[in-house]
């Protein structure tokens, strides 16, 4: 491990340990990232000059003006993205159907080896673009999407299938273009193993809020009799259902509800046709654990009160500040018995945290 990576990791550990000291957590478990080639997603602007084009990013100078930074390699991103970048650039330069007024390129890679590339244009795309794009996709063995205002052309699929290993089991995940997925796959596998270890084995049921595409849902299902997972975004619900079927799991139901809506349904304040259509009977569940992985804004007050009713709360957080705020409420009824930090985003201030809370 290089000293620069160790220094930034140590600084995060010190910051998180100090921030949460008042809750008297156990020793912080720290999960490192690879130092390079760890990010499975990357987005670049395409910068056009009179006789050239290249990948670009931007930074602000001392006067807050944008400065164009040419990107020829990007060691933050997975090796497969770095290998593909120059090949795509050559194709853009060689064929105006592919390169003319190309604005952005988005990469989505997988540990399994699949690659999806989205090309965003500032010109009208028509059917003449498709043959060139299809030939490029076949040549480079990638999936390709073209976008312009009001148009979307999909060459083969608009998703990749990732494979994540949790202990001795491999899980297949459909990851859809523009939908959220954990960007650091190596650290994601560590997060999944930590969550499964924290959950322990139960003969009761798990409630999961904000389930996304089922990233945590699938491996956690091995620890419980049944799982009810909730998610509002339709594309994520469809991906979660695809993943459940693909992995031959039969003890998970997915409800298309927000956390706030589930709280209302569970408290008997509202009835939702979406539950009836999915043949979900809330009264048939006996939850002893709830798992949450909320957005950066954290959890609303009504849902926090709901969480306080369960024996165990597993909380994965992408924002230590909102986790800290939420713990002001949850620590009234629960204590932290496991505490973890996952370095999903090396060399940035961002931190993913995990806590297991058990009823006092």
Order of helices and strands: HEEEEHHEEHEEEEHEHEHEHHEHEHEE
Derived from helix and strand composition plus strand pairing, the structural class reads: alpha/beta
Q: Helical region count?
A: 11
CATH topology of the largest domain: Rossmann fold
Largest sheet: 8 strands, mixed
Q: Quote the distance from N terminus to C terminus.
A: 40 Å
- Based on the coordinates given, report the CATH architecture of the largest domain: 3-Layer(aba) Sandwich
Q: Please indicate the percent range of residues in DSSP E strands (runs of 2 or more).
A: 25-35%
Task: Report the count of strand segments.
Answer: 17
Helix content: 25-40%
Query: What's the average pLDDT?
Result: 96
Summed up, the domain count is 2
The CATH superfamily of the largest domain bears the name: Vaccinia Virus protein VP39
Low-confidence runs of at least 5 consecutive residues: none
Characterize the overall form: globular
Gyration radius from CA atoms, angstroms: 22 Å
CATH class of the largest domain: Alpha Beta
Please describe what this structure looks like:
This is tRNA/tmRNA (uracil-C(5))-methyltransferase. It holds the Pfam family tRNA_U5-meth_tr. Its EC number is 2.1.1.35. With about 350 residues, the protein is α/β, with parallel strands linked by helices. It folds into two domains: about 5-35 and about 180-360, Rossmann fold, CATH 3.40.50; about 40-160, Beta Barrel (OB fold (Dihydrolipoamide Acetyltransferase, E2P)). The chain has eleven helices and 17 strands. The chain has helices at about 5-20, 80-95, 95-100, 130-140, 185-200, 215-220, 235-245, 260-265, 275, 300-305, 320-330; strands spanning about 30, 40-50, 55-60, 65-70, 100-110, 115-120, 145-150, 150-155, 160-165, 170-175, 205-210, 225-230, 250-255, 285-290, 310-315, 335-340, 350-360. The mean pLDDT is about 95.
């Amino acid at each position: 491990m290089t000293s620069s990576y160790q220094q930034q990791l140590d600084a995060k550990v010190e910051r998180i340990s100090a921030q949460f000291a008042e809750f008297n957590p156990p020793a912080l478990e720290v999960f490192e990232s690879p130092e390079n080639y760890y990010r499975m997603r990357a987005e670049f602007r395409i910068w056009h000059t009179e006789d050239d084009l290249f990948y670009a990013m931007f930074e602000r100078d001392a006067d807050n003006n944008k400065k164009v930074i040419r990107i020829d390699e990007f060691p933050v991103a997975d090796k497969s993205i770095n290998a593909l970048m120059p090949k795509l650039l050559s194709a853009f330069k060689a064929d105006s159907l592919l390169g003319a007024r190309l604005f952005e390129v988005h990469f989505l890679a997988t540990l399994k080896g699949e690659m999806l590339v989205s090309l965003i244009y500032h010109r009208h795309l028509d059917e003449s673009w498709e043959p060139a794009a299809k030939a490029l996709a076949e040549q480079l063995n990638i999936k390709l999407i073209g976008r312009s205002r009001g148009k979307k052309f999909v060459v083969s699929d608009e998703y990749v299938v990732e494979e994540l290993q949790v202990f001795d089991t491999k899980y297949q995940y459909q990851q859809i273009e523009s939908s959220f997925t954990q960007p650091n796959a190596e650290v994601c596998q560590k997060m999944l193993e930590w969550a499964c270890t924290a959950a322990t084995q139960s003969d009761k049921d798990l409630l999961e809020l904000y389930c996304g595409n089922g990233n945590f849902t699938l491996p956690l299902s091995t620890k419980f009799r049944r799982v009810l997972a909730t998610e509002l975004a339709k594309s994520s619900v469809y991906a979660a259902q695809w993943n459940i079927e693909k992995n031959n799991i039969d003890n998970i139901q997915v409800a298309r509800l927000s956390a706030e809506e589930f709280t209302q349904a569970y408290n008997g304040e509202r009835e939702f046709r979406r539950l009836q259509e999915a043949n979900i009977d809330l009264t048939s569940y006996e939850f002893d654990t709830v798992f949450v992985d909320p957005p950066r804004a954290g959890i609303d007050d009504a849902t926090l009160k709901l969480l306080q009713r369960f024996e165990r709360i597993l909380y994965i957080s992408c924002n230590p500040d909102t986790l800290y705020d939420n713990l002001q409420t949850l620590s009234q009824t629960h204590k932290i018995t496991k505490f973890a930090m996952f370095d999903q985003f090396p060399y940035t201030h961002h931190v993913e945290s995990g806590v297991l809370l058990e009823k006092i």
